[in-house]
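Expect chain and fold; thus:
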Amino acid sequence: MHALEKILAQKAGKTSVKTGEIVNCTVDKAGINDLYLQTVRSFHEIGASKVALPERVIMFMDHYAPASTSLQADNQRRFREFCRTRNVGYLMDVNEGVCHQVMADKGLSLPGELIVITDSHTTTHGAFGAFGTGVGATDMATILATGKLWFRVPEIMRIRIEGTLPKGVYAKDVILHIIGRLGADYAVYKGVEFAGPVVGGFSVSERMALCNMSTEMGAKATYIHPDAVTLDFLKSRASSTYTPVSTDADFTYAENLSFDVSNLKPQVAAPSSVDNVFDLDEYAGTSISQAYLGSCTGGRLEDIAVAASILRGKKIAPGTRLLVVPASRQTLLDAVRDGYLQDLVHAGATFVTPSCAACLGTHQGLLADGEICISSTNRNFPGRMGSTGAEIYLGSPASVAAAALEGKIVNPLKYL
């Protein structure tokens, strides 16, 4: 069995599972974000009153942080009340940041765990060797009531990333390239393992970006084998214990793919589909209204650092907005400590509360009709960040910063 299959088997109390099998698993971490008040409603509707495993439940106030309407504020009030009355283990309020980064910051995402959050980008946690997947409100209500949920064992495919990564090319470019080649539906309900020398050389931040964007090709879960990079990160977060996972000697795959990225150039996903991917140079010169650096895909400290390195001592182009949204409170504190916040503010950037912000099109940086944005986020659908008449290009944090500097899409290599 593959590690993802072994995780499901262990959580189901079975010695083995096979592709397509339905198993009922105990969940290690259950996360709910503030988009999903229906979770609480469904919890009551199914007749539940007590949370089965409250110490494993985490409530995140990240999508509306802080609330921008009275309805959002009331939803968050009701969530807080639910946490208080049901002894929920963790309440991550509006000061904490995006669920996936907060989990990483606090050492709550561990190898061998089954992590379920009401967010489609929960595949991010494959970067730590966990089985991370997103669910809807009713499924999460079931987890609250019972501590368990059913899963269909996914088919497992492996993507090896070979070669030497060129300067100016990042994990975001790599995953955009892969999605562009395979298509947005290639990995629907599949487990995707990332392997190969390039992956081994990626930091935890870059691994998280890789696994995060796998949602955009339909992945049910992702997996990167825990190694020294993983363990060093976990130790830095005071995560001294975790469930060990076996070596990959006995892993089998339904499909093996390989991508050599030695000659890869910076990539861009053009409007209005994530698999509409091209070399960024093909869109060089496209004027932008806004550059957006943030989200659970591209708002980590390394992303802010590369933007600061490009913009330090310079000014963003007149008539262009640069929004920087740290993925978490810890990310913001680290950016202050390292001087990146000051560098970017002096360059003309606007910092936003650590949150999802405009990534889901609700507040803090929305686009008007006819505006063009280049973003380090994960989706460029019409209306995703505001008006359906706006256009969104997806690129790496370096590409976002370089575009803010020139007021147009430009290859970031010359600034690195």
Observations:
- The first helix runs from residue 3 to 11.
- The chain has a mean pLDDT of 96.
- The chain has two domains: 3-259, 267-415.
- The radius of gyration is 20 Å.
